[in-house]
Amino acid sequence: MLLLMLAGSIKGSLYAQENTSISGADKKFELSSDKFSRRFLIDLGKGNKLQIELKEMADLDRLKNMDSLLSAFLQDIGYLRDSLSDEITSKRIDYLIDSSGRKEIRFQQFKPKGSIFLLNKGDLAALKLEQDTVNFIGAIEYQAKVALKKPFPDIRYYQVSFFVNQLDELPSILAAGLNDKILSLLKNVYSGWQPDKTGTLHLQRDPRISAKLPKGYFEGHGDFITPVISVNVQNYKNYFVPSFSLGATLTISNAVFKYEAGLQWEPQFLFQSTQGTLKTFRNDFLTLTYGQGFVRDHDPRKDSYLLTVFSIGYLIRREGEYFDNHTIRIGAGNISLFEGKTKIEPAIFFHDFFRQVTPGLRWIQRF
Q1: Dihedral class, residue 90 (left if φ above 0, else alpha if ψ from -120 to 50, else beta)
Q2: Which phi and psi (to 5°) does residue 177 adopt?
């Protein structure tokens, strides 16, 4: 027991040390992908690239004068010239500008794991294979607005990354003009996107600009329609009622919040045995569903906790004497299991403004 306690305490100490290292400069300069909802890549030629990551598309307006931002950066790193003189090492510079305009710079230099040389006519020269990286990180203070909550102060980020063969190439990139490339993205981001052989999308009006998904989304964001196919089981009064549903759900989302609206046709089946003959009665409902809630793992296609969810079904085809005319079923809230494939929903049945209210419970199994 003493040995196990000692081993556990050593492991806990090491874990704390790791957390300390992560919570320092890395926490400030290493932004996770869930900080952004869109990502664009601009080809600058000769293997150099510019990557733009945004939380909100409106933040791209802050980069209209990219030439001035890069020019100011080249002046600010003047004191690092001695550290930048090693042409073999790969370098990374993080350039953080907070909401007050204050700047912070982090410089990292990495030596190659091995050495590669080029022998040409008796001259031996070392080769550099890794590109240099420059990250511009911007912080924006704003009032976040989320449904059913009061606006609250928050910070969102944007990040502009240059991947260049050598840092010395940045002045030539500046001379080529970056503002035109940003302006081209602003004008054409909502126009057509054309896939290449690898599946990467390029702007039809500017093939130098590429993205994983249209409009720069990279993890399934945006608006989309999902077909709905499910089998259902519910109780109605003292009857066991199986059914199935066919329809579609429209999802409108951003990086934080999503809205879902669906329409489904749902035929329900009741069975009656008369004189040894089994007879089936089909009653059809047209069901409207609605839900809204937070996006999970930055992907609206994943099942997530919904702040509001309900359904309204109306009887459009009646057979037999089981349901009254104009029957309405309302469901509110649900229990979601197995990534949303299985849902359990409480419901009530009534007709003519809440006459003869009957409670029920639905089991919905989607595919």
Answers
A1: beta
A2: 90, 105
